[in-house]
Write a structure and sequence with these properties.
With 1035 residues, this protein is an alpha/beta fold. It has 33 helices and 28 strands. A hairpin with a 2-residue loop joins strand 1 and strand 2.
Amino acid sequence: MHRLRTTVARLRPLTAAQTAQSLSQPRLLAIEGGLRTFKPTRRLNTSVVAEPFLNGTSSNYVEEMYYAWLENPRNVHKSWDIFFRNASAGAPPGAAYQSPPPLIGSSQGLASVRGLVGAQPNVEKLVEDHLAVQSLIRAYQVRGHHVAKLDPMNISCVDFDDAPCAIGFQNVDIAFNQQIHLISPGFYGLVESDLDKVFRLPKTTFIGGSEGSLPLREIIRRLEMAYCQHIGVEFMFINDMEQCQWIRQKFETPGVMQFSLEEKKTLLARMIRSTRFEEFLQRKWSSEKRFGLEGCESLIPALKTIIDKSSQRGVESVIMGMPHRGRLNVLANVIRKELDQIFCQFDSKLEAADEGSGDVKYHLGMYHKRMNRVSDREITLSLMANPSHLEAVDPVVQGKTKAEQFYCGDNEGKRAMSILIHGDAAFAGQGIVYETFHLSDLPSYTTHGTIHVVVNNQIGFTTDPRMARSSAYPTDVARVVNAPIFHVNADDPEAVVYVCEVAAEWRNTFHKDVVVDLVCYRRNGHNEMDEPMFTQPLMYKQIKKQIGVLQQFAGKLIAEGVVTTQAYEEEVARYDKICEDAYARSKDEKILHIKHWLDSPWPDFFTKEGQPKTMNCPSTGISEEELNHIGNIAASVPEEDFTIHGGLSRILKGRANMVNQRLCDWALGEYMAFGSLLKEGIHVRLSGQDVERGTFSHRHHVLHDQNVDKRICIPMNYVSPDQAPYTVCNSSLSEYGVLGFELGFAMASPNALVLWEAQFGDFHNTAQCIIDQFISSGQAKWVRQNGIVLLLPHGMEGMGPEHSSARPERFLQMCNDDPDVFPKLSEDFAVRQLYDCNWIAVNCSTPANYFHVLRRQILQPFRKPLIVFTPKSLLRHPEAKSSFDHMLPGTHFMRIIPEDGPAAASPEKVKRIVFCTGKIYYELTRERKNRGMDAAVAVVRVEQLSPFPFDLVKAETERYPNADLVWCQEEHKNQGYYDYVKPRIRTTINRTRPVWYAGRDPAAAPATGNKPTHLAELQRLLDTALDLEAFAGKV
């Protein structure tokens, strides 16, 4: 007799003997053209040994049944009722059960069972069979997704057992009338004769609907329908019973995936728009790269379903991030960007951007507020602009989402949410995905659940999955945060839509991440110009034969009578006309307006034309009264009965003494800046590794009670009753993810000071992608201003090559000012220079200047990224303190700090000007004093490196006409600032004098690891800087 292999055969365990036997024999698979030998299948080799009755799991099961029977005899199966009544009447366990006659139909025959003390039943067999059925149900729940029909092309051969999967039997469709043969010796002892036996269903399944018992045949059929069709549900790793039960109910309950006629028509209309949009682009611009969505057209109804369902549940804002594939389709049919604005991007005659350098069309973002027709509520949709660096936008989206939730008081994520769209290869391959997942449940970073949609093309450019990842699925990374993963065949739009409804409901219910894996294909190559047959010939032969999903779905609905062929064709023609009309309008566009593609507008911050409202920056000083008030807060513990560490008591006492002396050190200067901004209603957020205390134990913004666990106090939140909130949060040990997150947070509003501090300055290089692709060039590419502040501890302290350099040369290299052009001076030159630059780089040598530059970030009429090379030894340097006089009203940030000693009194006698920046100033002045050269050498500190203070440097060089010029730095010659400042100083003086170098020699490493060598190098550079004959005779 022909034997049907069902999923049961794959899920059953083997006895130890059977395992040994199977391992000794290779498995053969009949395919066209002969036999192919497979490696042995690795299976769980649990021994199936019958347990003695009333021992082990059997006793637990019987005990559970007994307590249920005591509560109400109707709670248990009739056979258990008879058993317990007989046992209560005095029959021994082995004789208390009356075996029922053979079952007829579903539950007939049980009525004829009568209690008969003295009969010889096999109650142990009954218990084991029920346990076996429970194991069978659990096996489907755990592994059913392995054999679901997920691949539209039916060529996927994902290997779950370290051996090739058996094509041909994994997806057997089980119907009512099929005769099912369980592979001998059966599943936990179940045999073919058990198929029509009725089994009571456990509480961990919903396949019964309103029925509590089903025949085994029907149990298997329903499990097949729930877990082995076009949806594969991966969730049994979740360690929360309520969440698992919720998912089971959504997918197991009979008849859950039902759609009304209107819903089917809406789905068809969305599929038409998704498909015909790509076909229109292909007809009009067949030789243009557009990274089309062909092969995964169901992404559009998927996203629209998520947005619809979320809007119905109260979500007002959706922030989205995605790669380039399908981006134009999402802009057109999800965000609802005007089609003519998209089509004009293909016009080769379109003039350059009105502002900035622009970007290619499939990287641009969009912000749009519209009415959602399904929920009848307004919703704001934002698609973030992003670079080609896949997944880099993930943490940026999360940061912006968190900011929107924060500003509207949404502490549960009910009003703002994020959707991230991924590619399969990038989702598995890019580490930033893992970093972003690990932010998902951290208190200061959670967005209360993100819906991840993976466009699973089953290929990465030209790389097969078997070469692209070690895991079975590209989505396995999501398991680390217990996110359920819903795999779905993208050629079944109804299954896709249902899964997305469940995903939206999951996020709304549990506020946790969820993944939708759209298993699809890529009809073209990596782009429309690429030839995929070079590397995937067999896959693309199959793809060429593949009928499009719209054609399949339309045919299905026509066959069901949902729509007529004529109605379908009219809908297609209607959308085609919309595209043609938009194409005609697009020819009227002459200039590319990048502002039309802005993803984060600040309408109240700029004029209607998007320009700053003024070009003036007011004084950044504050009153003495305010300085004293904030200083006293910094030196206090505002909460009562709060015990702080003894060492911290000394620090706070030291702060109080400084306030009394009208002085502040670095930590207090930062406190003054933050506290004053908070008092003015500006939110301040400081994030990074160990920022609450500070890497160098100088900040202490979060106080910890020494006697009460987890009790903390943040004095900064006690500055004023109506102040803005202060957020200071230690981050996960991540730079790439956290810096991207803070960048996104800063994007949401210009009225916040958002800072990210590296534990040490050189650690920023693991976040280089965010710095290069977003911070440095973001405004030029996407007309998107951002005021994020990077605090990068920097300085040669003899601590070795790591932890020494924040690599200032890299930041300065990316500055956009011209070293060879002296800028035109004007009254607002300093502010205009800031407006024209791409970012600001400073190395402050005084707490007052640090205070001013932080306040300037908010008080200036635009936003620019600020890079601060912060000190380490200066945090406690006795000379690195500032008087309150330098922080009072009327004071500003000083772009350079000129010489103010004896040299300044007699400038004509000065033989040398030493320009420097940062902490080297204190070493230079100490050495100058020791040598008695205070009148002969002027030391000028360049505090703002970029944009370069051409005007002030020019004034200093003219002030000392008889002096030669030296740039002194503690960094190596090929690092630091020298290559940046030398050509600019030369331009300032019209190249009339040379600019000499005093510093360390070129080197590959940032610093030496030997302390004596470090000190010798330092002395050598100081000797060079202060030896007036060091450059004699040199040209």
